[in-house]
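pls design
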């Protein structure tokens, strides 16, 4: 309210959006004036499209009777509606950095008259992927602005970078950094990687599992989990960066209105998405950044409610689990479900982050091993056939050699007879014994001349004009016989006689 810079840190679900939206609306209402053309009075940057839409809706709801104009700008949609919304200026502009810079490069947006600059989810916005865009945006802002930074986590290196952009900020920390909500019941289930899908389906089949968010690390992983659950009859949708804006909005609307029970998402949905009555959060894969765990489980137990967070951890993720416990300063209860006979392992081979199989098999075909076939009939390393064939696991090498010998003999007998070569003439002879016709220039000539020309090393003597040019000066002059055309040199001239 005094106009000083602020750095606020609080748990997820404690109302950080209202903490900066209400004072800003009070300031705008107390000092009403027209917004600058193609600009705004308040600029709010958010890391994701969903969070930007949610912040804009909060401003509209809180300032419903104040006559405040609000616009939202992010990628994935057309430029023209956003340019038209900014043409006359708006009071509050909520934007993603990428699209905002695009509009600034097109001279469709001017933020030099901004009075208040808000950076929501400051730790992620100031991370490596957003440092340069943020610095470009800040360079176009007025030096007399007020800066407000809010986040649930603030690592030391990110805090130092925020101090460079803030001018003597007031730090307000409601709870210690990276503190999880108290009303979230957390537990970890130790399980093999191949049994995660079966365990997830078992957890979702429980009657107490209501509206559930499932988090994965990769976009491909989110699609695979969603297809697996949908095949089991679960109403599910996936949301990640590869989805179009329309698909993401429809998935969120279906999840908010209860048309689907499970939403599989990457960390794109872990930042500031406020969905009512989310009872469970399942970490299908633990995040590589420990602070992201706080944001994930913060999607439940919001506004004083209670919730449950379940994390599935395999052997390769034990180090990530220790990092999460170290950052959150707590020990999460463990439950060991490894070697559980009631959980059937998934026969689909595990995949890496880029979609390639973990066993090194090439995409587009099965891996050959132990003499198995290449195209669909060979067996995998577990001994089961890929396309339903029932080949035996162990075949004796002698049988392979015998069958290979039979195929070789059969192929040898099936080959057509090769054309034999006449040693005396150096020409191939057809199987019926007939020799091919000579070229036109060799008709009526002796074989000795042809053989002599073949020994010159030129293989093009039978080809058109090249054949005549190879004779050169060695060719004998044409004989003046009966019926032959006389040479020009022997023709009598008109002056003679």
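designed seq:
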């Amino acid at each position: 309210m005094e106009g000083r810079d602020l750095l606020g840190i609080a748990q997820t679900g404690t109302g950080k959006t209202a903490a900066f939206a209400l004072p800003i609306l009070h300031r705008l209402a107390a000092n009403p004036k027209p917004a600058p053309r193609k600009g705004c009075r308040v600029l709010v940057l958010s890391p994701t499209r969903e969070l930007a839409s949610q912040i804009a809706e909060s401003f509209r709801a809180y300032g419903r009777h104040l006559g405040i104009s609000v616009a939202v700008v992010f990628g994935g949609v057309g430029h023209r509606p956003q340019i038209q919304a900014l043409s006359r200026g708006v009071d509050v502009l909520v934007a993603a950095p990428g699209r905002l810079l695009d509009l600034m490069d097109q001279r469709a947006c001017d933020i030099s008259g901004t009075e208040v600059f808000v950076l929501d989810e400051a730790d992620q916005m100031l991370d490596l992927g957003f440092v340069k865009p943020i610095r470009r945006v800040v360079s176009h802002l007025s030096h007399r602005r007020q800066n407000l930074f809010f986040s649930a986590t603030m690592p030391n290196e990110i805090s130092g970078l925020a101090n460079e952009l803030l001018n003597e900020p007031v730090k307000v920390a409601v709870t210690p950094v990276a503190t999880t909500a108290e009303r979230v019941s957390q537990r970890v289930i130790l399980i093999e990687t191949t049994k995660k899908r079966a365990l997830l389906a078992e957890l979702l089949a429980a009657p107490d599992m209501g509206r559930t968010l499932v988090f994965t690390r990769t976009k491909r992983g989110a699609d695979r989990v969603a297809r697996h659950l949908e095949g089991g009859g679960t109403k599910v949708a996936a949301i990640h960066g590869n989805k179009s804006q329309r698909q993401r909005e429809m998935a969120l609307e279906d999840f908010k209105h209860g048309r689907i029970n499970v939403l599989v998402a990457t960390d794109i949905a872990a930042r500031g998405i406020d969905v009512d009555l989310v009872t469970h959060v399942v970490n299908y894969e633990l995040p590589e950044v420990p602070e992201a765990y706080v944001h994930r489980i913060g999607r439940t137990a919001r506004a004083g409610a209670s919730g449950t967070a379940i994390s599935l951890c395999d052997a390769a993720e034990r180090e990530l689990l220790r990092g999460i416990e170290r950052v959150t300063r707590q020990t999460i209860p463990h439950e060991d479900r490894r070697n559980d006979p009631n959980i059937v392992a998934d026969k689909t081979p595990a995949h890496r982050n880029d979609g390639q199989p973990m066993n090194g098999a090439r995409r587009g075909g099965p891996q050959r091993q132990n003499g198995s076939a290449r195209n669909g009939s060979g067996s995998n390393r577990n001994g089961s056939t890929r396309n339903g064939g029932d080949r035996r696991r162990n075949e004796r090498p002698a049988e392979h050699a015998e069958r290979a010998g039979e195929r070789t003999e059969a192929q040898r007998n099936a080959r057509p007879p090769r054309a034999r070569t006449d040693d005396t003439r150096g020409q191939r002879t057809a199987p019926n014994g007939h020799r091919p016709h000579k070229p036109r220039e060799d008709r009526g000539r002796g074989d000795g001349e042809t053989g002599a020309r073949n020994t010159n090393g030129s293989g093009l003597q039978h080809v058109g004009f090249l054949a005549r040019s190879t004779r050169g000066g060695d060719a004998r002059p044409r004989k003046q016989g009966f019926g032959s055309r006389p040479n020009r040199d022997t023709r009598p001239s008109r002056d003679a006689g």
